[in-house]
């Protein structure tokens, strides 16, 4: 990668941060680094320093940065046609829907622009299904520690009170149940329950795979009451765990699937996939979005699916266990790591303390990871990561944990 004139870059970077501090609504706490380009699993900052990206923009850049297939698809499409609205046909939405429906087994797709919107769509379509059936059901069951996004509907099925409390009242008729005790779910679901929403692996909740007893309870509750199951695969889906969709690996059978993040690999795309019976309940005008599924978005998603099919999914299946084994070795060497959780390239190191300092020191070591659920260091690397790059990430993580473990007086700046 090219190096930059570091003093010029520093000035630019200081200015970037000052402008944001003055004019951008302060809803995010950013790390003090300004990224200017990326290639594969590497990001380059304005001062020329390079970082190994083990987070992919929170599970998004699955092809790595500047992947030729994505660059080429977007470059070609942007010069032809970017947007026409959903008032008209264009050549790419149908083929994308065909590919996603074939892969998932759910026959119809609706396109939107983010994971949050995909969850919104799922909630609306679930309620519409029961309304159309003539037996309106409104109750929604979601799980403790679950995260669905931050619009009013998605926030209503997001568990963390910190996100919810200032914005009430939220959508009514949502009940949270334990993600460990199946009886809690079984006693909550009744014949007024429209749907149960669950992430096959909770991402923001601390990289927590749904335990088998909860999977069995979801299947049992849906079977006995007719409640629909919504699989929120925004973070766990589209190859992240080595499976196209993680619900299948667990033995779940959704009526609705929410997708986002990986689908556009950096271009904003979301999708809802629905079963035939849900699809039959939806009429023109029930839902919509101006941008959803535009030519550019669909080309990005098709490039992702092509790349996954051309060997990338196989690659994730091969390197996921290598990453996991390396993390387990790190856990054995560092008593502060109490557990390694996840599947494939979605992994969390659970610590006996706040993960914040680990993330900050990792950045100083040129390693990008993030903190979730307070004590979890989350890793969501690009799918294209090589074995050598995994080894380098593990080496850096090991060094970071060693620094964090050092007695306070010896800690490096
Ligand atoms: C499981 C899950 N659902 C929904 C969302 C919301 O997606 P987005 O923030 O991309 O709109 C997220 C985001 O982290 C997520 O992890």
What does this structure look like?
There is one protein chain. This protein has helices at residues 6-23, 56-59, 68-78, 93-104, 115-133, 152-156, 161-164, 182-188, 212-225, 246-250, 276-280, 295-333, 356-364, 387-405; strands at residues 35-39, 42-45, 50-53, 108-112, 139-143, 174-177, 193-198, 201-202, 208-209, 228-232, 256-259, 270-274, 337-343, 346-351, 367-368, 370-372, 376-379. By secondary structure, it is of the alpha/beta class. Strand 8 (201-202) and strand 9 form a beta hairpin. It binds pyridoxal-5'-phosphate. Pyridoxal-5'-phosphate is lined by residues 58, 114-116, 119, 147-149, 199, 203-204, 232, 234-235, 260-261. Residues 58, 114-116, 119, 147-149, 199, 203-204, 232, 234-235, 260-261 line the site of pyridoxal-5'-phosphate.
Report a brief summary of the structure.
This protein is α/β, with parallel strands linked by helices.
CATH superfamily of the largest domain: Type I PLP-dependent aspartate aminotransferase-like (Major domain)
Characterize the quaternary organization of these chains: single chain
- First-residue to last-residue Cα separation: 27 Å
Radius of gyration: 22 Å
- Tally of individual helices: 14
**Unreliable runs:** 1-5
Identify the bound ligands.
Answer: pyridoxal-5'-phosphate
When the domains are counted, the total is 2
């Amino acid at each position: 990668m090219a190096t930059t004139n570091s003093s010029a870059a520093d000035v630019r970077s200081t200015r970037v941060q000052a402008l944001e501090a003055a004019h951008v609504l302060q809803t995010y706490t950013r790390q003090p680094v300004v990224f200017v380009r990326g290639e594969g699993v590497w990001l380059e900052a304005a001062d020329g320093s390079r970082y190994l990206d083990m987070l992919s923009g929170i599970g998004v850049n699955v092809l790595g940065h500047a992947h030729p297939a994505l660059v080429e698809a977007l470059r070609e499409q942007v010069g032809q046609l970017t947007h026409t609205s959903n008032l008209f046909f264009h050549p790419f939405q149908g083929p994308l829907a065909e590919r996603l429906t074939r892969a998932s087994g759910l026959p119809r797709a609706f396109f939107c622009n983010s994971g949050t919107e995909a969850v919104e769509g799922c909630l609306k379509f679930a309620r519409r299904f029961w309304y159309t059936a003539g037996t309106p059901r409104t109750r929604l069951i979601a799980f403790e520690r679950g995260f669905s996004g931050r619009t009013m509907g998605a926030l209503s099925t997001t568990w963390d009170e910190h996100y919810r409390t200032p914005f009430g009242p939220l959508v009514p008729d949502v009940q949270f149940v334990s993600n460990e005790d199946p009886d809690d779910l079984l006693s909550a679901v009744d014949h007024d329950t429209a749907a149960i929403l669950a992430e096959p692996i909770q991402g923001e909740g601390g990289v927590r795979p749904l335990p088998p007893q909860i999977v069995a309870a979801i299947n049992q509750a849906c079977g006995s009451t007719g409640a629909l199951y919504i699989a929120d695969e925004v973070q766990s889906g589209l190859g992240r765990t080595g499976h196209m969709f993680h619900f299948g690996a667990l033995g779940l059978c959704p009526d609705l699937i929410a997708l986002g993040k990986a689908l556009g690999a950096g271009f904003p795309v979301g999708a809802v996939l629905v079963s035939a019976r849900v699809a039959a309940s939806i009429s023109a005008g029930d839902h919509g979005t101006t941008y959803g599924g535009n030519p550019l978005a669909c080309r990005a998603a098709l490039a992702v699916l092509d790349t996954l099919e051309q060997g990338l999914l196989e690659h994730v299946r091969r390197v996921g266990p290598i990453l996991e084994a390396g993390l387990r070795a790190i856990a054995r060497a560092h008593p502060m790591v109490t557990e390694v959780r996840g599947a494939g390239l979605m992994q969390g190191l659970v610590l006996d303390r706040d993960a914040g300092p680990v993330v900050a020191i990792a950045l100083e070591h040129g390693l990008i990871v993030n903190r979730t659920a307070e004590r979890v260091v989350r890793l969501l690397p690009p799918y294209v990561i090589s074995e050598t790059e995994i080894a380098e990430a593990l080496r850096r993580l090991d060094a970071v944990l060693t620094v964090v473990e050092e007695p306070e007086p010896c800690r490096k700046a």
